[in-house]
Amino acid sequence: MNKNKVVNPDLAQNNSAPSKSSKSSGTGSFDKTTLKRLLSYMHPYKAQLIIVTVCILLSALASAASSLFLETLIDDYITPLLGSDSPVFSGLLKALAVLAVIYFVGTLANLMYNRMMVTIAQGTLKTIRDDMFSKMQRLPVSFFDRHTHGEIMSLYTNDTDTLRQMIAQSMSQVISSVFTIVAVFFCMLYISIWLTLVVIVAMFFTLKIAAYVAGKSGSSFVAQQRTLADLDSYVEEMVNGQKVIKVFCHEDKTKEEMRVKNKAWETSAGTANGHANAMMPMMNALGYIQYVIIAVLGAYMAIAGITNLGIFGTNSMTLGMIASFLTLSRNFTNPISQISNQFNSIVTALAGAARIFKFMDEAPETDNGYVTLVNAREENGVITETPEHTGLWAWKHPHGDGTLTYTKLEGRIVFDHVDFSYVPGKTVLHDITLEAEPGQKIALVGATGAGNTTITNLINRFYDLDDGKIRYDGININKIKKADLRRSLGVVLQEVNLFTGTVMENLRYGNENATDEQCRNAAKLANADGFIGMLPNGYNTVLKGDGSGLSQGQRQLISIARAAVSDPPVMILDEATSSIDTRTEALVQGGMDRLMSGRTTFVIAHRLSTVQNSDIIMVMDHGSIIERGDHAALIAKKGTYYQLYTGAFELE
After folding, report:
1. What are the C-alpha distances in Å from 60 to residues 107, 176, 186, 311?
2. Which residues are CB-contacts of 189 (< 8 A; sequence separation ≥ 6)?
3. What is the DSSP letter of 426?
């Protein structure tokens, strides 16, 4: 295309002004709007989430109950046996069996909710990916001009993977930790209010430190995702351009740029993960200090006979109470450590979700057209609509009074004083006026950037005009539905895109309802049938890697045959032969000539030998038509076309 790709930093770096789906994605704090939107994707799993919540609650209660049961086990069963001459272990065995049941219930509940969260995570991500891909199909071409493929792929890979980790692991761990903290807190109060106050004071200082570290690392995790997307985009671009890199001996330069981008990612990831990895050891160390303090105070209370206060009254501190409380205090500290540790993962995932939702909130391609393309039949000059393909197409006009009129599709395209700019204020096309009669071959000749491809982009309505009109069979193309407009146009590009699948499936890409015989006839028309027949499995040969096993000419012939399968009344050939050799060009040209026969055709070519038989040749220069006429007239004029044809100067 005749413009430079402008990469949108919003998607690549997520550093733009907050959108409706991302109010604080770059701050390192919770993005409540994004979280709420993410949770809406989990709504279909409401029943499973209720079961998960019950299982998490059971697991938390089992953890607290097992710790609390240690007091009974030690004081009522183990301690009496220590002073007995003839100990009876039946009571102890029953108590151990009860403890085993508690542990079993907790373990089973833990297993169930973890497995269910994995299923919920994968289902949620499937829906998100489906919505992303569906939205991508509705985005205008201009969006893909502003963003690299690597940036978009990063949404499908890196960002969705962080979401998977958050939904499958972080969310359930945070909920489990909250339930455990509440259950354990009341159990500690049951044993000793005094020791519980010690735990609360210690935890206050611990949380202060954790909040400070989390604040430092939160923004670093957002930066990590941003630099990773930039790195992925660069690697994808370099993989696609390996041949060019080697031809121009650019390896050292690309390696240096790679080092810079990789260093940026290393720095942000190192900072983020450095803080995050320091969180758990620091929390553990503080937990051990708390553990020692509680052990000393509990032992002192027991030895000194200090009255203990629980929520159900006063009592004396016992060995079982101390052991049980120490276990509970660890069960109270660990969940808080887990919440602190998962905070950064959640912030990273929400940053990725904000990028995904920003992508999904991009303005879709608008279409206000109401004229549609239908199969038609003409009898006695009257056009009627028919469900089967007859070779005749018509434009169907609905009117406000409920009536319908039909206009025969002939392929007459008129540009009426068209102005256009990709970027406001930088006009690309200036006052373009041209008329292509049905069946005419119109050639557009000009240097790269002259506006040739832009004209064909406007016919397809990939972009809307700044001024002027384009009429198709007398109808303003703004009134034609884009899908119907594009269905009437066959396009053969210089860069051929073949998809993974059989040759027959690639040919049928132009018309899903085409029969095998129609596809073979189209291949014969394009001179592609011969080499297809020599492939290992003929038309059932599977093409992979964009048809990497085929030559450039063979790939182009398949592209021409694919266009022929759609049987369009208007053809656009954009440098279709510029990247193949002269001998192959003769073969391809023969296929294109057959394809163009009887169709209105726009041909963009740098090789003037391919456009000599055009009805009208238009010479473009800086977005304006400077010459027009057939080959003989332009040669006689001895202007720019004559100089190009005779080699006085060349197209660039």
Report:
1. 10, 7, 12, 21
2. 196, 310, 311
3. B
Per DSSP, what are the bridge partners of residue 104? none
CA angle 278, 283, 284 (to 5 degrees): 105
Query: What is the distance between the alpha carbons of residues 615 and 327, in angstroms, rounded to a whole number?
Result: 91
Q: Which amino acid is at 42?
A: M
Distance CA 183, CA 601 (A): 76
Query: Where along the chain do its domains lie?
Result: 17-360, 413-488+568-646
CA distances from 597 to 56, 124, 526, 601 (A): 71, 51, 12, 9
- As given in the structure block, the two tokens for residue 120 are 């919920």
Q: What is each CA distance from 639 to 82, 525, 613, in whole angstroms? A: 115, 36, 19
Nearest to 418 by CA among 448, 463, 368, 484: 463
Per the CB < 8 A criterion, the answer to whether 541 and 459 are in contact is: no
Residues 291 and 293: their CA atoms lie apart, in Å, by 6
What pLDDT is recorded for position 218?
63
Residues 6+ away with beta carbon under 8 Å from 67 = 184, 187, 324, 327, 328, 331
Question: Nearest-CA neighbor of 434 among 628, 606, 569, 597?
Answer: 628
Residue from 184, 191, 192 nearest 332 by CA: 184
CATH topology (fold) of 413-488+568-646: Rossmann fold (3.40.50)
Q: What's the number of CA atoms in the CB half-sphere (13 Å) around residue 490?
A: 27
Q: N- to C-terminal Cα distance for the chain?
A: 15
| Residues 6+ positions from 295 with CB-CB distance below 8 Å | 322, 326
**Spatial separation of the C-alpha atoms in residues 174 and 341, rounded to whole Å:** 10
Q: Please calculate the CA angle 348-16-3 and round it to the nearest 5 degrees.
A: 115
In this chain, the answer to whether the domains covering 17-360 and 413-488+568-646 adopt an identical fold is no
Q: List CB contacts of 505: < 8 A, sequence separation 6 or more.
A: 499
Of residues 420, 567, 398, the one with CA closest to residue 480: 398
Q: Is the dihedral of CA 537, 542, 548, 553 positive or negative?
A: positive
Residues of the chain with pLDDT under 50: 1-29, 652
What is the DSSP secondary-structure string of 541-592? PEE-TTTTTS-HHHHHHHHHHHHHHT--SEEEEESTTTTS-HHHHHHHHHHH
Q: How far apart are CA 320 and CA 317, in angstroms?
A: 8
| Contact indicator for 413, 470 with CB cutoff of 8 Å | yes
pLDDT digits (tens, 9 = 90+) for 558-601: 888 888 888 788 888 887 766 566 666 676 677 677 777 778 98
Are 514 and 563 spatial neighbours (Cβ–Cβ below 8 Å)? no
- CA separation, residue 582 to residues 285, 576, 577 (Å): 76, 13, 9
Specify the pTM: 0.71
CA distance 105 to 496: 61
Kindly state the helix (H) or strand (E) to which residue 639 belongs, with its residue range. Answer: none
- Pick among 1.20.1560.10, 2.70.70.10, 3.40.50.450, 2.60.40.3080: CATH of 17-360: 1.20.1560.10
Place of tokens 């018509």: 394
Tokens of 73: 């086990």
Backbone φ and ψ for 23, nearest 5 degrees, come out as -85, -25
Q: What's phi and psi for 476, nearest 5 deg?
A: -60, 125
Chain mean position to CA 121 = 17
